[in-house]
Amino acid sequence: MRQLFKSIKDRFTPEPALPHQAVAELASDRNGLPDSDPGCQAVIDASLAWLCAAQDNSASADGGVARDFSLLKGWATSYPETTGYIIPTVIDLARRRQDDALHARARRMLDWCVAIQFPEGGFQGGKIDSTPKVPVTFNTGQILIGLAAGARHYGEDRYLQAMHRAAGWLRDTQDADGCWRKHPTPFAQPGEKAYETHVSWGLFEAERVAPGHGYGDAGLRQVDWALTKQRANGWFASNCLSDPAHPLTHTIGYVLRGVLEGHLLSGRPALLAAALRTADSLLDAIADDGYLAARLDSEFRAAADFVCLTGSVQIAHCLFILYQLTGEQRYLDAGRRLTAFVRRTVWLDGPRETRGGVKGSFPINGAYGQWEYLNWAAKFCIDANLLELELSQPRHA
Q1: How far apart are CA 2 and CA 306, in angstroms?
Q2: CB within 10 Å: which end of the chain, N or C, has fewer?
Q3: Which Gene3D superfamilies match (predicted)?
Q4: What is the pTM of this model?
């Protein structure tokens, strides 16, 4: 394992105030990753089972997915934002497996999202029991991804109408330059956010379901605005929850995916070129073993001593898409290194609340999702591994 973990391990003394499970997990992480990779399919299956457990055990018991399982606090209440974009993953797996039980889970998530939508179309930030309850641009965009998937796959008017309300609200609250400033989240540092290209992705999905309402154009305006924050080496300013000088790979993954989705919708070469600038610099930051520091400075140098596992699989997925678009093997190889690293952190046995879960950080006490297994980490892990499996299948002439 990397020398970093060795040196930290030598200094580690378990904190007696921590629960035994937390102490044991941290000790395991400090010992480094297992040598064996469980493989894509095993991790997809385990992480899906974990997401089902997160829905079943949400402390608010409402059909949404618990934000996390904490080794300190147990299961959290449901998280609207990430339940929204978990929906397409569950629908996709339900369709692949012809699994009615998974379809029923997706519908429970959809019905809950529809029930908590504000009349004007927006959705709250934070967990369902968080305050203040105010409509937030980012969270609305993430739930819109799920509403669009529900409208497309189930064809029910209630999902379609909820999708139109959310997409229309985002379109109509956008500033003229493409940025969203009117409804920021109260749960992150104030300021403009380049990573709201991931909101634009929600609008692109709504455009695909119901073209002709200006949803795609609004999303592309935001992507164009976000590119004013991109430097020549692909790094984005104004692109973090809390530290814009050293953004998380999570928000780098968000902004990159949104730019890519803009290209996929519009076919604009400039958006692909922008995504490649970011990806090419990221390649140099990914170690041979798949280690990617959780935060990167403006030169894509490590600015943290832990891994944000969510960001790693998000970026891997983007690299796989770039491989599909360009045929360049380096993107496929780097994505595979990232997913292999994350897979080696996932337990395939043990208690249900941790089996198949993906930690916020590796090691688990890192400063992102500390001591927690996060629902969105599991979702992005499944998505990246599904695409990796598809890319591993032989191509037929």
Answers
A1: 11
A2: C
A3: 1.50.10.20
A4: 0.95
